[in-house]
Amino acid sequence: MNKAIRPRYLILTAMMIASISAGVPSVTHANSGSGAFGGLSSIFGSKSQDILPVHEAFGVTTTQDGERLTVQFRVTDGYYIYQDKIALKLPDGVVAGQWQFDQSPNWVDDPQFGRVAVFESDVIATTTLASTQAITDTAIGLKWQGCAKAGLCYPPETTNVTVSLAANPDAVKAMQADGMADNNQADTKADTPNTANSATQATSQDNTNLSADIIGTDGTALPSAERYTLDHSYTPSQAGSSNPVMMIGLLFLAGLVLAFTPCIYPMLPIVANIVAKQRSSSAKRGFVLSTAYGVGVASAYGILGALIAWFGQALGITAWFQKTWVLAIVAGLFVLYAMMMFGWVQIRLPSALANLLQQNATRADDKLGSITGSYLAGMLSALVVSPCVSAPMAGALTAVAGSGSAVFGFLAMFALGLGLSVPLMVVGAMQGKYMPKAGAWMDKVRQFGGLMLLGVALLMIERILLNSLMLVLWAVWFLVLCLWFWRLSKMGFRVLSVLSAIWAGCLMAGASMGATDAWRPLNTTQSTTGYTQTYPDMHITTLYELDQILATRQKVLVDLTADWCIECRIMERELFTHRPAALSDYQVVKLDITETTDESRAVLARYQLFGPPALLIYQEGKLEQVLLGQVKRADFEMALVK
């Protein structure tokens, strides 16, 4: 290698490493590990981590010395407790001052609540009690809530504390006059933590009264040694990142496809100018400069992806991706992106902003002959051209916003930008001699991208619409794909056209027979022979209703579900549409926790669950089995006959 060129290759390599490093945030948040390595492990998958039951992850010890109440919280490494969730539920006539802590809290970006104050190690909290009348061995409720750094938060807990106080009405009046005690100010609802005030009220009038022990309906405690496994390689909110390596690779290929659309042409004069500015007419030199330009383009996209993913996590966007209405909006966005690819809709930046970006890109013209100048020109050019490629880029941004990982967001969008820039690098190396001419074939590439975006929209809708109508929508899509392939008039495309038509026919046939699985449209042979419904299904929302049912039925199957739970809908289709014969003897109960209420939190607390889906199998009032997460049909049938 030419000695004059070698340092520039080293600079270029360092630039690429720096670009990737820029996308790795140093901030630690609730669903990542520590620092960059924790983020990378969350992307590429890590070993399953045991999530401790709440009373093993945390411990509470209380002591009273006169009017002073001291609470010591034991916090296991890898967990934390919310500062503003610590509160007392006091009887009438008893007040408490503000909590005093033996250490300052840390601030974390919680996946559910945003930026909140927490304690990540053992902490001691003290407060002063006062009562208008003497009380002896009176129970008060100590409320608190904790979370695992792995990204799962426990329901609020209430620990009963017995206190004795002498009558001291003057102290009560003094505390109320000084604003130190106000039983009506604290708000300890699980879904609305106080993130603004650093001072923590010690009192609460919330009527939630959950037992500190997790008690089964038969009056015995559920096994405390039981562990629940969290697999970091997949969570429902990761919006397509269950196989992040594959997704990053696909985005790189998507960038390659975009490179052959007319949108890339505004970059060509810049690349040509970069090559022209070089002092020596060397293919290596042209490749180095154009690669620096391409890395700049990819870096701009990567930084944008990291910002979208990071702020999406901090603002709680990841939690929204379980909701039906959010999925519907995202599907609508992909339809809009497809219309933009077809040229039916045009959305561009305001002319003033576009002109400003263009002027800044032009100012870098004098430095285009250097690696640094080419890199900066690439970053600015990405901003100028992004309105043209906004349809696919916005689709990718929508996906990374739901991932919750800034590292994944950076790498995903960096891959898209790098794929987009590969032809530019080739052009730089070949000095522009072999650039294909614009023509109708480039329009075909753009149309194909639009069809693929419509397919993505259908994939989103499929998580909402779990019936035969979904098969009809897929059949229409495959028919459109069939016609598009046929019009290309090439033998290979004609074969694809015929295959698309055959699959569309299978989908229509499956829809007519009541099938609901678009990928197995003719699989309607599941037999309901042998199943007889002994009891009608019951839909409830409270533990009181459940206890009444358990007292009157020998066998009960409790399906813990929620409207926003996508896996619950899939299980409804796969397990309960065609019911096995073994389910005949069971009373099926749908326990709905769609709304976050005291009752729904009590349900999760009793069974020490983090949320739906879950299947609870009772026999003679005793909880025999708990099936967590999305359950396969084979496992379901096996559990029923045990």
TrEMBL record:
It comes from the Bacteria. Residues 246-465 form the Cytochrome C biogenesis protein transmembrane domain. Residues 49-163 form the Thiol:disulfide interchange protein DsbD N-terminal domain. The chain crosses the membrane at residues 245-275, 287-312, 324-347, 368-386, 406-427, 448-465, 471-488, 495-515. InterPro entries: Cyt_c_assmbl_TM_dom (IPR003834), DsbDN (IPR028250), DsbDN_sf (IPR036929), Thioredoxin-like_sf (IPR036249). It is found in: Membrane. Pfam families: DsbD_N (PF11412), DsbD_TM (PF02683), Thioredoxin_7 (PF13899). One of its GO terms (cellular component) is membrane. Residues 183-211 are annotated as: Disordered. It is a multi-pass membrane protein. The keyword Transmembrane applies. GO terms for biological process: cell redox homeostasis; cytochrome complex assembly. Residues 1-30 form the signal peptide. GO terms for molecular function: protein-disulfide reductase activity. Its main location: membrane. PANTHER family: THIOL:DISULFIDE INTERCHANGE PROTEIN DSBD. NCBIfam families: PRK00293.1 (NF001419). This is Protein-disulfide reductase. It comes from Moraxella pluranimalium.
